[in-house]
Amino acid sequence: xxxxxxxxxxxxxxxxxxxxxxxxxxxxxxxxxxxxxxxxxxxxxxxxxxxxxxxxxxxxxxxxxxxxxxxxxxxxxxxxxxxxxxxxxxxxxxxxxxxxxxxxxxxxxxxxxxxxxxxxxxxxxxxxxxxxxxxxxxxxxxxxxxxxxxxxxxxxxxxxxxxxxxxxxxxxxxxxxxxxxxxxxxxxxxxxxxxxxxxxxxxxxxxxxxxxxxxxxxxxxxxxxxxxxxxxxxxxxxxxxxxxxxxxxxxxxxxxxxxxxxxxxxxxxxxxxxxxxxxxxxxxxxxxxxxxxxxxxxxxxxxxxxxxxxxxxxxxxxxxxxxxxxxxxxxxxxxxxxxxxxxxxxxxxxxxxxxxxxxxxxx
Length: 363
Known about the structure:
Radius of gyration: 21 Å
CATH architecture of the largest domain: Alpha-Beta Complex
Largest sheet: 8 strands, mixed
Helix content: 10-25%
CATH class of the largest domain: Alpha Beta
CATH topology of the largest domain: Quinone Oxidoreductase, Chain A, domain 1
């Protein structure tokens, strides 16, 4: 750490039954993926920067795994421009991508009592995961189950929480209902198929032909190849639709929806650089105002109970991240370029200890 980033003392009120675990002091600097300006992934560079110091409500985590999401691409490029007032008007506040984090607590802020150095955790950071060390709000972390690898945990928080909140919180999926997941091969979609099954639903999943086998392996009851068949013309009906693509107007979806159905939209076309998917979402919401099924759109948040549920499902094998490949810090630029192009398959995990770009995930 730098001179003004010293290790804070351990919590003044140790939790019962928890003994301090010796952990190494972090170095003063680290090699991280960083940027100082908005732009395409090529503006990122791998360079030496100071190890961050946790603020009073934060912990310093030795990162064993992170993963990349569409969120990282949007915050890096500053698009839609609508997000810039919150993320930094002229330059991004998040200099290092990677909201997903899994690893070991090395130091705690002065107000943190829930965690101690040596605790294994995973959760959502305000960026910083594409580095060996990251600071994370202590309230946005949960315990990493012993049965779960850091790479699986690091692939889960943003996409897994989005899928869970879309289906359980907003979609209110009940056992025996029929769920359509549109965009089932992406990061959120691969979790959504499994979450819907865990909630007892029948699942129709929509993806491209190259991903049919992957999505079927996740438990989908029916898989529709959108390059060969339009799901809105198949005659299938649904209690819940999770739309992660935005490639159909509301008028195409409404005939498929059963009485009391819920339509949950989490994304849409990216072509409008100023407003992104907002115009599409507004048009969809207005169309549903005149319909009996309900429309839901939300921004996912790192709720502790949701992260704990995902951790339990990971530990039991009920849910498993679909990982396309694992990359090192040198592979982040190519991975974010792929995400920005909209052709990502499943999750791309970032392991800071991997040298070189990385390799496909395998058994």
